[in-house]
Amino acid sequence: MQKNIDHPHRYDDIIDLPRPVSKTHPPMPVSDRAAQFSPFAALTGHEAAIRETARLTDRKIELDENSKEILNEKLLLVISRIKEQPEVTLTYFVPDSKKGGGSYVVKNGRVKKFDDYGGVLTLTDGTNIPFDDVIDLAGNLFRFLELS
Residues annotated as region Disordered (predicted)? Predict the structure, then answer.
């Protein structure tokens, strides 16, 4: 005889039985059980990739000849007083490590040395700044320098 699946009492024979418990596997803690129902992230990293693409970078500014000349005069003044470790404010370009472009950084510090061969300014805090990336040098050292 076939059971009627629409019968309202079809589970009456098992409804009040205790839940089966394994004799070999301990019950899973409730905190671990919740993890199995966490959402599945099919596109892991997609959100980060979108944020990275949307992140803006600046293009490196190319100085005109007059600005380059003024900057070089300032550098020569810094080099001439390198033993005094002159305090300057540098504005320089830092290339982005993940995509084209970068950002401009303004940093105050004392110049410890200038590597003429590599073209790198080293500050007393150990920061190395390629002079080709510098777009401005400022400070009290330059207040009497007449540059047009």
Answer: 1-20
